[in-house]
Amino acid sequence: MSGENRLPEVDQIAKPQDQAKADKYFVQKAEKMHAQKGRKILALKGKNKLVGLTLVGCVLGIYSYTMFSVRQGKMMEAFDKIPE
């Protein structure tokens, strides 16, 4: 059973030109896969930066709105305490 699933052994000494072609093929295939993976990672990095900048913008907007409204509330309290 284990003999059926095994790949045939390659005689590297008998046909070196065939071995070189096979090596080139697998190297090219690996390079293509590596390039595809790199493109996917770059796309994800761009999306992550966009999401991060959006979140930072939201946080800064909420913070600045809160500071503005607190400052305005203090001013309104000052106007309410008019001396007689």
Automatic annotation (TrEMBL):
Residues 36-80 form the Cytochrome c oxidase assembly factor 3 mitochondrial coiled-coil domain. Keywords: Membrane, Transmembrane, Transmembrane helix. InterPro entries: Coa3_CC (IPR018628). It holds the Pfam family Coa3_cc. The chain crosses the membrane at residues 50-68. This is Cytochrome c oxidase assembly factor 3 mitochondrial coiled-coil domain-containing protein. It comes from Elysia crispata.
